């Protein structure tokens, strides 16, 4: 990430509450379009339509790796939450439960 930024830039946060969706649209003679959506908001990641260079390949690989890291972290947190919920359901000393 720490590369200098040239040209236009923008930061956008897309809050996805579990009902988000993602898709990759591929075309025979142009670069793919990667889409992430939540509700009525859609973010699309595109490259120059006719030019793919080594930097494009590097970016695509970084995107895939970071998406994989994101998924692994969400899975880790979800497993921990399931364990906590399971322990609370079986613990008679849990507040709000009759002993």
What does this structure look like?
The protein has 99 residues and is α+β, with helices and mostly antiparallel strands. It folds into two domains: 32 residues, no CATH class; 38 residues. Helices cover 37% and strands 22% of the residues. It is built from one helix and three strands; from the N terminus they run E-E-E-H. It has a three-stranded antiparallel beta sheet, with no helix packed on it. The longest helix has 37 residues. The radius of gyration is 20 Å and the shape is elongated.
Write the layout of secondary structure elements.
Blueprint: E1 21-27, E2 30-38, E3 41-46, H1 54-90
Antiparallel strand pairs: 1-2, 2-3
From the helix content, strand content and strand pairing, which structural class follows?
alpha+beta
Helices, by number, come to: 1
Alpha-carbon Rg, integer: 20 Å
How much helix is in the residues?
25-40%
**What is the N-to-C order of secondary-structure elements (H for helix, E for strand)?**
EEEH
User: What's the story with the biggest beta sheet?
Assistant: 3 strands, antiparallel
**Mean pLDDT over the full residue set:** 87
| Bulk shape | elongated
Please report which band the strand proportion falls in: under 5%, 5-15%, 15-25%, 25-35%, 35-45% or over 45%. Answer: 15-25%
Total separate domains = 2
Spatial order of the strands forming the largest sheet: 1-2-3
Number of strands: 3
Distance from N terminus to C terminus (CA atoms, Å) equals: 53 Å
> Which regions have little confidence, pLDDT < 50, spanning 5+ residues?
none
């Amino acid at each position: 990430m720490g590369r200098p930024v040239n040209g236009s830039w923008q930061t956008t946060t897309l809050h996805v509450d579990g009902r988000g969706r993602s898709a990759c649209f591929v075309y025979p003679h142009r670069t793919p379009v990667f889409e992430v959506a939540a509700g009525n908001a859609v973010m699309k990641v595109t490259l120059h339509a006719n030019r793919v260079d080594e930097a494009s390949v590097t970016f695509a690989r970084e995107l895939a790796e970071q998406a994989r890291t994101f998924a692994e972290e969400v899975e880790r947190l979800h497993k921990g939450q399931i364990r906590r919920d399971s322990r609370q359901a079986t613990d008679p000393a849990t507040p709000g439960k009759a002993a």
